[in-house]
Specification:
- By secondary structure, the protein is an all-alpha fold.
- It has one domain.
- It is built from four helices and no strands.
- Helix 1 packs antiparallel against helix 4 and helix 2 runs antiparallel to helix 3.
- The model has no long low-confidence stretch (mean pLDDT 88).
Length: 101
Amino acid sequence: MHPPPAKDPHIRQICLGAMSEKVPQLREAVNRSDEHQVRSLVRELRHTVELLGLPKLFQLSQDIEYRREDLDASIWEGQCRRFCDLLERIHFSLEQQRARS
């Protein structure tokens, strides 16, 4: 998944900074099965995916934060891992965009 090219380099830099800090923390929290920390980081990262214009990823973040009680633990954890995987790919793509600028 690639983010749409952010037209404003300032927005792209904000998103890149947030992801550089929070995505590794999210991966670690998911690996520890720390539901509280996962939800907190997902909430913070939701703003980033919204700025990038990624509505499906935004929806996934809401599902992770608000639908935990509705889902089997393995399904919820799978959603968390998927969210993290996608964010890592987007982060990589943003890094490439910055390098080309």
